[in-house]
Amino acid sequence: MDPDDVSARARQRDLVRRGYDTVSRVYRDDDGQAAGSPAEDLTRYSGWVADLAGLLRPGAQVVDLGCGAGIPATRELAEHGLRVLGVDFSAVQLRRAQRLVPAARLVQADMTALQLRPASADAVVSFYALIHVPLADQRVLFPRIRAWLRPGGYFLAIVGAGRWTGTERYLGADMFWDQADTDTYLRWFQAAGLTPRWHRYVPEGASGHTLILAQAS
Questions:
Q1: pLDDT of residue 206
Q2: How far is CA 67 from CA 62, 163, 196, in A?
Q3: Which residue spans within 144-191 are E strands per DSSP?
Q4: pLDDT score, position 17
Q5: How distant, in Å, are the alpha carbons of 28, 71, 140, 172, 177 from that of 20?
Q6: pLDDT exceeds 90 at position 4
Q7: How far apart are CA 81 and CA 166, in angstroms?
Q8: CB atoms within 10 A of CB 3
Q9: Is the peptide bond prior to 143 cis by the omega test (within 30 degrees of 0)?
Q10: Which of 34, 116, 173, 180 is deepest in the core (most CB within 10 A)?
Q11: Triad 22, 212, 69: Cα angle to 5°
Q12: What pTM did the predictor assign?
């Protein structure tokens, strides 16, 4: 692997971390509302979490990658009686999550370097976080997520619907995105031992993302 490429990807991830340190309260207030997207339908998170919770036993262990300030998704998971490990690399976001979702266990870490015990999770979720991770790092991460899951465990994630990458100003800070198209993600999940069960297009204004539910095979 080209060391320059490794360094470039590390800088891209760090740009995202610093960006969310800066925009945390603008991105979501303490009620979970997104100031930058006032028309966002927060009930969709409730539906996504409810769908997953219906597949899991009470008290199941769920890892929330890129949990941010913990609202609304981490809080929804905890309110369903699930044991939640929230992971984020933004110190500002995690400080807020500690206050807003005290029932969750929180770890400050870059998800691409996170170390968890094999077969220690019943489910892993990631909502609007993978799209900030360089694609090369995403591809390496998927088999690791499979290893964290118990046999038959679930991975529920928002990923790209179409190929796009770029660095732009977002809510007053520079932010990086990198995403493949839906078919590519379906292939990558399958290759990692994560069998897609269904996928849905999530429209957002003139564009959108894809929600995929996969199961550890």
A1: 87
A2: 12, 24, 22
A3: 149-160, 164-170, 173-179
A4: 98
A5: 10, 14, 23, 10, 13
A6: no
A7: 38
A8: 7
A9: no
A10: 180
A11: 25
A12: 0.94
